Structure formats: structure tokens, C-alpha cells
Amino acid sequence: MRKACRLLAVGLVLALAGAFLPACAGPAEGKILVVGTTDSVTTLDPADAYDYLSSNILNNVAETLVAYEPGTTNLAPCLATEWDISEDGLTYVFKIREGVKFHDGTELDAEAVKFSLDRARTLGGDPGFLLSDIDTIEVTGDYEVTIKLKAPCSPFLSKLAYTVGCIVSPAAYKADEKLETDVVATGPFKFVEWVEGDHLTMVRFDEYWGDPALPDKVVVKFYANSAALKLAVEKGEVDVAYRTFSPLEEEGLKGNPDLVCLDGPSPAIRYLVLNVTKPPFDNIHVRRAIALAIDRNAIDEQVFQGTVTPLYSMVPDGMWSHKPVFKHEPEPDIEGALAELAEAGYTPDNPLSFQLWYTPTHYGDTEDDLAQVLKAQFEATGAMQVELMSSEWGRYTDDLVAGSMGILLLGWYPDYFDPDDYLYPFLSTEGAKSLGSFYSSAAMDALLKDEVALSDQEDRTPILEAVQDLLAEDIPYIPLFQKPQFVAFQKDVKGVILDPLQIFRYYLIGKEGWE
Amino acid sequence: MPRTWALLKDELFTVSGLRIWVGVAIVLFYVFVAVFAPVLSPFDPEELGVGPPLALPDSTYRFGTTYLGYDLYSRTIYGTRTALSIVAAASLMAVSVGVPLGLVSGYLGGRFDRAAVLVMDSVYSFPSLILAIVIAAVLGGGMFNAAVAVSVIYVPQYFRVTRNHTLSVREETFVEAARALGASRADIIRRYIFPNVSQSIPVILTLNSADAILTLAGLSFLGFGITPPKPFWGLDISEAWRYLTLTADYPQVWWWTAVPGLAIVILIIGFTLLGEGLNDVLNPQLREGQR
Amino acid sequence: MAARAKPGSLINYIIVRLLLTVPMLFILLTLVFILLRVAPGDPAAAMLGAHASIEVIEQMREQMGLNRPLYVQYFAFLGDVLTGDLGKSFRFGIPVWDLIKHRLTATIELVLFAFTVAALIGLAVGVFAASRRGTVWDVSGDFYGILTYAFPIFWLGIMCQMLFAVELGWLPTSGRFSGFIDPPVMRTGLYVVDSLLEGRLDKLVVALRHLIMPGAVLGLYISGIFARMVRTNMLQTLKSDYVLAARARGVRERWVLLRHGLKNALVPVVTVLGLQFALLLGGAVLTETTFSWPGVGSFLVDRLLERDYPAVQGIVTVFALGVILVSILIDIVNALIDPRIRY
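Output (C-alpha cells, whole complex):
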């Protein structure tokens, strides 16, 4: 028995010693790209995918009729080779590309397009409402589809470019059932497997109609937090790390001589929602006071180490028709805020007391910090007392729709790249119900209806600016900042493009040494 | 309680006694800090930017400052308040539910007893942390809800011990005598059984407090229960955790992690020593790990 | 559960024991159901997110069966569990069981490793302390138990991450597997075993490197209890008559300890195992979260944070079943060892 003990001890020691050696990885088989992220995938069904990573995976394995040219916001033909829009803006005729194969070998045709789009708009998935402008879809030729809208909608093509418009193989999908765990479409990659919480794999689709993807295989690895992802990219365990690091981590990565870091503008915005039906936020003076007390530059410094851009309108800076309607001097305007509070009956002796809500993990680690800094800013007026309340995303969105929160922090990532997507969902009577402000203004509804019916940017701009002016008058939302996107990758990786729509195209990324 | 004192007096200078001394000293120290927190801490623990952010420890900011400029020293001191008040509240709630139930159940016996035992055993056998986080998640954030979540998992222990003691005491002759004399059940329980059973409560109380601090720390670390900027050690540790990979450039992170952790460890050691010391002295026959 | 001295068959015991767990399981499931139904918040709204309209949310509630009366939902829940249907996760729309499958084996691997570590260290410390009765080692052995209990697992875990992974770079901070190679071919779901079966030592090394820290941290936590238990039992055994007799016969000191003391000390330890399993599971939740170990524990925390009712119900059910299963096994093992325990 003693000998056995000794052997066991020796064996253990050897195993442990071996375990401490750096992992000897076997040579990578083929041209593999490993991407690390802290996001997670929730579904692979285009009719249901509405969060960033699920959509992005679909951007790589599936395609839409029209798509954005990489790195730009220009729409270009994809599965549709050309299209014709009628004078009244109600009828769109698409010519479908011929010779395109689905991953299961079947051919793309007009029937498949009709099937996919009808399915997406009737299945009741999260993004289905984006296709609600559609009245009917008709197959008017083997490779021609005619879509009729209920009312003219100038960003319609843009909406079709969202992954809800991905065309899938009718042979693999049922019209009335969701398929969460597989994708059969036309993209440059073919889906292989998804192990929830661990990784997702895709391989190059050799019968792709366009330029072949550069990698043979892509593995997307899910990391539970940014610390793990940071270490992974520093140690070379992933080729590319995208979303989402905290400011100090980005700083650390930038200082790492073995890595390349890029940052670029992001279309995502952060803002405060004020429930205009819930006292004390039903009082315009209170809303104005809150808006005046905010110091976006201090937020930028204290929370984000100077990496975010203050935002003064719901339409992001850099998008056409953006007007900085919330800008005021000085910032913060404590005197102005106190004056407004006084109008509403609040003074330092009788302070305005409220709860500021936020959700601690959905927007990253920095949300705790952001909430605390805002609280300090409000209390710096001397006439406000703020209690921080938080709940996790599940409960948060429920409370949002129920209207039980008075003022809360929220974010938005566009479904389609058009100012309308930053205004209509927030300011229309319909939309404001789902976004927590419960704002309703006939004047606003009229303006929104007008701008979306026009097709020319030049014609729409003055109306869009009027919308923003009204937004700053009524203050159902207070835009805060835009945070740039950031990516870190190994020195031998090429072709990483930071897209203005945050579409991350794995098929364009290669490594030195790949022929 | 006179029996308790008698037992204690004998043992106060043995090894077990030493444990009680050390445990009491630690716990009292924390209580002292909690009570005199406003005097002892140089800054408001919830005041953002009270110092330059990310400062290393120096004479003004003894443990340095955090990412947003909170003073870690003040936060650690006030953490005692949060910890002790929640534990006290939770213990009060657990005792006021578990002990009466145990008394009644033990005395009455029969189906009520069997049902109560079954329910309590089921709760007891379930991993306590998991139950606590489910309850905390359901109830939402805040100190009170955290206290409730923590109290629920300790009710079975007070119940069990009280009930077992009640079972043995109720067969004693003086209880029979009281019954014969026509005393009501409530009276018997209150006047005869409870005083004899109560001596086991302090032990459970202290050991449960130790566990409660641990559970509470775990809850706040995972994100349930106490929310910022309330000062509490578990929360401070989870905030520090975000900066895990940055220790090379920011050695402050070691401070942010180590200090709150030590605060937790020492308090738990205090409660545990106290509890185990009391256990050895008062209940030599119950010596079987009351956790 | 009183053990009567009357001899009965082992089978009888097992059957009765199994039957007794049914009410317990029932109660636990009811508790879970009540907790999650009482919870404020609407999972339908949670799933659909901030974009959905009221009508769509209503539709979702219908789909989820949330509009049925509470007792109908309750019986539906019980019925589902009995048929092995743990429900579908609201967020993923995938059956809970499919989601948990990988995670279960991950947790089992972690728990087994931790348990081994705990047993080894606990035995070593306990025996050592017992054999040096009355000295500094004895007291330290006792204190070891308190210390390992007092250190919050997540704190110990974070400190280890900071030291071994970040500062020294010896080990990865988190996760179960990494690098450019694929995980071992799935046979048992335990990476260590599977990589051996596949004959790939490189995969074994990677798996072990990831397992060491979380496993050791969790193991240390439990080892204290083990150590104290072993020490107590050994002390009692060492005082017992037959050990005295063995000593009298001149058997060597070390042998006395090992052969007689340990064997008997192990019996009650098995019981402690059962009791500590619940503790181990709780500790696993914290360990998995700290080390991003993709097990059932960290999954539970994720699902809870997202108000994903069915997933939480499913996971808690699995935990309850696990706890009950282990306690039955322990009781059976005890009954096997000790013929006095029968019904």
C-alpha cells in the first residue's frame, strides 16, 4: 500500500508540474480565425434575432436583399441585383440574383424571398415590427418580387438590410415555427455548431456566389467578462477581441506593444428616459432642471477616462440632420437648474427627491459608475436628492413598459441606419409607450409622419430638425453620450474594419501567412 | 439563563474560554466601529470624488481611493454598519419565526410537527446560498430584502434546535406536573419550556451570524441585494474585480480587493470563535457542526 | 429518521428511503414554484425587450401560458418535471435540459476535482493534527477549519486569479478550455477524462490548467470541514479500546494511526459528505461565477439576473434532485457499512 501511495504521489506531482507548463497547443488545422467577445448569442433565427451578437452572426452566415458596403452606410445590391421604386413610394420591385445557392444546396429564387420575408413578419419575433410597413409580397417572376407598402417609407430599404430581412432556405424552415439553433442561408460562411456559453463555429461556404471568405473556419468564443477576454487576447488565445472592454482595459490594451488596437465611431447612443406621465417628471420645469444639471464632460472624464463623445441630440453626431439641440452653456448650468426647480416649487430646503434607475450589467461594467456620477451631479445642485435603484435587464424592461420607473438610463442601437430610427421609436405616441417615456404629442406625430414619407434627404432635413427642436422643448429623453467602438487584435491579423453600423464581417479578416 | 452563566464561569479560563474571549473581542470591536463610524471615518463613504480617483494609500486616504474617488478607508468602516445591521435584522426575523415554530411544533407533536419538520428539513437540505440568491433576486435590491433573503435560510436551524430541545424538555417531570395542575399549553411553553431551551439560541445566533455575513458577501458579489453606492465589503470586492487584469499598472487594485476581504474574514472568525466557544461550554452534547 | 435496531433487508431500507424523498422533493419544487411566481416582473416583457408593443407582449404571455390560473400552471409544472420536461428557457427558446447538458458535466467535473482536493487535504490535515494531540499543530488544525470557512470563496478565487494568472501568468484566469485547439471529443463530458480517452495529452494539460484554480479554491473551502471532522473522529477512535489493544500488541505507531484510526474515522465522514454536498453546491455557484466556469451554478446566476423563470425553475429542480440523490446514496452507503441501520 505504501508503494502505491508513493506512485500516486509521484504521478500527481508530475501531472501538476505538467499542468503548469504553458499549454502546448498543437498546430492550428487550417486557416482558423478566433474571435473573442463578452456578448452572447440568444438565437440564430433571423425572424427573432434582435441583440447585437445574434444579429452579427447572421450578418456572416446569411444575407439580405440589400446590404451595406463594408465600412460604409451605403446600401448596395446583395441578393437583389436591382430594384425599382414607384413614384408614390408604395411599390418596390426587386430583381433577385440568379445562381445563388443556399447552404443546403437548394437554389435562391423569388419564392424563397417571399417565404422568408412573410415568415419574418408574421412569426412575432422581436424584430418583426420592422417589416410592418409591408402590405403584401408577391412573386412576379421566377426571380422577381414585388413588395407593396401600406404607406411610403423612405428608410424601407434600410429596414430590409437588417437581419430580419435575411433570406433563408424554405426547405429548412417552417413558416410558423422558430428555428433558434441552426441557420440555413446564403452567406459566405456556413453555420456549424453553437455551444451556449462557450463558442460558436462556422466554416467557409465553398459554393458562395460572391468573393470567398478569407478564413476556412471562424470560432467565436464567449467570455463571461472583459477581464478574461483581455487576458485571452494578451496571451494570443484569440486573434481578435471585439466588445466590450472598460476604459482602463482599453487603455491597457493600447499600451500593449504586441497588439493592434482600433477605435471608431459607433452608432449606439446612451440617454436618460423620463416618464412624462409620472410625477414629478410630468412637470416640464423638473425635466428642464434635470437636463441642465447634467455635465456630460464630467461623465466623460470620470466614468470613461475621456473616451466617449457628449451627445446633444437623439440623432447621433455624424449622421445627417443631427442638430445639437440639448447643448447649453454653461454645462452644467446649476443656476439655471435651480431656477427651474424653484418654478416647480423645489428649493434646497424642500429638495426634489426621486429614484434614478439603471441596469447594472447589460451596458457593461461602467453602468454602476455612470449612475453614481449622475447622482452626484444632480445632488450638486443642492436641491435634489437621488436614490439609485437598479434591476437586472429582465425586470428592467418589464418595469420600463409598465411605466413604473420615473427616470432611467437606457441605450439604443439602430436597426436601420436612418435618423428616423433614432426618432420615431422614441417620439411617436406608439413608440414612446415601449420606450418608457409615454410621450404623446400630436404635433410630433405629424412631423414624424411627414418626414418618413419624403424620400429626399434635403427635403427631410428641415422636418427632422424641427423634430429635434420639439424634442429639446418637451424633454422626454435626455441624450448623454456616444461611446466609440473598440477592437484589439494580434499583429498578424489583417482586414479588420470598424463599421459605422458595427457590423463585424469575419469574412474579410485574414492573417499574414494565409495565401 | 443562570445555568448559562454557571457553565460559562467555569470555562472562561480554559482553551475554549480563550476562544470566547477572542471572539467577543473581535465582535465588540466591529460593533464599536459600526457605532462610532461617523467619528472614525474621515470622509463620507458615499461621496463620489471625495478624493482624486485611483489614488494610492497615503496619509489622507489611508487605503487609497477607488475608480470614482471614494475613500476606501471610510467605506470599509461604514461597511461594518451595513453588515451588522443586516445580520441583526436577519437574525431577529429568523429567530422570531424559527423559535416559536420550534416550540409549538415540538410541544404539540403529531401531524403538525411532522409537516413542519418535513418542510424545514427540505429547506435545510437545500443549498442555502442558492436559496438566498433566488429569494434576493425575486425580492429585488435593497438592504431590507437582503435581510429577508438571509433570514429565510436560517429559520430551519432555529426551528430544529428549538424543537429538539423542546422534545426532551417536555417529558420532564415538572412539565408533567404543570400539565396536571391544568396550566394552558401556551403557559407551559412560555414559562417552562422556553427558558430551558433558550440557552442553545446564543450559539446558533453567533454561528449563523458568521454564515450570514458570508452569504451576504456572496449575494452582493453576485449582484443581488445591496446596491451601490452603499458601502459594503462584498460589493467593494466585486467592483474591484472588474480591474483584475490591471494590477500591473494599478496596484491600488490589490488594496481594493484585500481590505474589504480581510474585513469579512476577521468578523467571521470572530463570530465563529465566539459561537464555537459557547458551543463547547454550553452544549457539549450538541457538538456536531451547527452549520 | 430514527434507525431502529431491528434487522431488516437492505432493499427495504432503500425503498423506504426513496419513498421518503418524494414528499421532500415535492415540497422543494413547490417552494421553487411559489418563489418564482410570486416574483414581481413579467418574463414576457423581459424577453421581448424595450422595443415591443403591449400587444406583442400580451401575445407572448399567452404563448408562455402565463395567463392560466396559478394552480393550473402549478400542476402543469409538476407534471412536466415528472415527465422529465424541465421547460423551455424564455430567453433562448430552447429546452432547459438541452441548455444545461454541457453545464452539468462541467459542474460535476469541478465538484469531483474539488472534492478530491478537499478529501486529500482534509485527511492530511486532520490526521496530522490528531496525531499531534495537544500541540500547536493540533490547535492549528482546528483553526484551519475556521480559516477556510471564513475566507469567502470568491475572494480567495479573485486573489488567486490576481496572483497566479495576472501577476505570475502561470494559469489562465477563467474558463474551462482555451487556445487554438478544440475541446476533447465529448464522451463523458468531463474534459480530463475525455482528453485521456482521446489520447491527447496536450488537451489534458489545457483542461487541467483551467481546472486547478477553481477546483483548488472550492476544494480548500470544503477541506476545512473535512479536516475538523477527520480530526474529531480520529481523536475519538484513537482513544478507543481496540486501538489501545493494538498499541499494546506493539504495532507501530504510524500503522496504528493509518489502519485503525483512519478506517473508522472515514465512516462518519461519509455522512458528512452528504451534509456538505449542499454546501459544495453553494460554493460551486460562487466559484463558477468567479472563474467563469461554464457550469450549472454560473448559469443559474445568469438566468436569475435575466428573470428567465423556466430556466431557473429547471436548474433549481436539478439542484434539488441532485441534493436528494446524493443524500440517498450516502444513506445507502452508510446502511451498507453499518448493518444496524435498517427499517
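Chain B touches chain A at residues 47-49, 53, 67-69, 137, 140-141, 223, 227-229, 239, 241-246, 249-250 (CB under 8 Å).
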